[in-house]
Design brief:
single chain; alpha+beta; Elongation Factor Tu (Ef-tu), domain 3; Four Helix Bundle (Hemerythrin (Met), subunit A); rod-shaped
């Protein structure tokens, strides 16, 4: 049985292992172009071509006089709205409460006088010394003075309270709106002086102080180290063995060899890729492949020729 199995195994075709594929490629950079969403005069540039900047470092600033004044106006409006809201939660001032209390004391004194007058008129009317009309007038005066005392007592209680809940809710809405307006004003002001989104090399400064910059127009172009990638082109027969995440080796003139990881494989074929002009490959289909540094960013300059070795499988 064993000789038969061995014989059958001998009949199976040997699995061929492809040789490593040596290709020519180049480094390419994905630039971050920083501008402002607002137009304005360029007031200051903090960097120059070739500088290395850290994340958060200032890059440039547009003239901000108008935006700063607008922000200060919104801040003042917010402070006024907050003060009004705080005032609605309080009662009347002490002097106002004192004035109400004094009017209430006067009304109580008038009530005591009208009650005493009513008693005298009642006695006189019983003895037929006063008319019924005078008695009715005294009774009306008492009712009037009692109503005045009740009104002032209610006014004093109300003065101790704050505003009505609906008034407070409306003012709270105004305060919230002013806070949002202040956030927008702060954002517009910050947009006039953007900072570096990441550590990078300044590739190009496009404007100089005093020049007018249109809204959205880049002022500085940055190249973060992680935005450098390898670009090479794989022949169609070897494409099936290559997957995103595979490792490739690379090297260049007078630089240490390194390893990159395949991050992109084109879905459509091309003919001879840029910067490769060999007659042998001119009529062959190739696919664009991109790779990025594995352990660290690629220490390459955009446009730099690179030799790439794709391991055989």
């Amino acid at each position: 049985m064993k000789p038969l199995v061995a014989c059958l195994l001998c009949l199976l075709p040997a699995v061929a292992v492809a040789e490593p594929l040596r290709l020519q490629g180049y480094a390419e950079g994905e630039y971050v172009r920083v501008g402002s969403p607002s137009a304005g005069i360029l007031a200051h540039v903090a960097v120059k071509d070739g500088d290395r900047v850290a994340a958060g470092a200032p890059l440039f600033a547009l003239d901000a006089v108008i935006e700063r004044a607008a922000r200060d106006q919104v801040r003042a409006d917010l402070e006024r709205a907050e003060a009004q809201l705080a005032d609605l939660g309080k009662g009347k001032r002490p002097d106002e409460l004192k004035a109400i209390a004094e009017r209430k004391a006067e009304a109580q004194a008038a009530l005591r006088l009208s009650e005493a007058t009513l008693k005298r008129q009642d006695v006189l009317a019983r003895a037929d010394y006063a008319s019924r009309a005078r008695l009715d007038e005294a009774r009306a005066a008492v009712e009037r003075d009692r109503a005045q005392v009740r009104r002032l007592e209610a006014e004093y209680r109300t003065a101790l309270l704050g505003a009505r809940p609906d008034e407070i809710a409306a003012q709270e809405a105004v305060v919230g709106q002013k806070r949002l307006e202040l956030l927008k004003a702060d954002k517009r002001l910050a947009d006039l002086a953007p900072a570096a989104p990441a550590g990078a090399v300044v590739e190009k400064v496009y404007y100089r102080p005093g020049e007018f910059v249109a809204a959205g127009q880049p002022v500085v172009s940055l190249l973060p180290p992680g935005n450098v990638k390898l670009v090479f082109f794989v022949p169609e027969p070897r494409l099936g063995a290559l997957r995103v995440g595979d490792a490739v080796a690379y090297g260049c003139d007078r630089c240490p060899p390194g390893e990159a990881e395949v991050s992109f494989i084109a879905a459509q074929a091309e003919y001879t890729p840029p910067v490769i002009y060999s007659v042998e490959s001119r009529d062959k289909l190739v696919f664009r492949v991109e790779a990025r540094g594995r352990a660290a960013a690629l220490a390459l300059n955009p446009g730099q020729p690179v030799d790439v070795v794709v391991p055989g499988k």
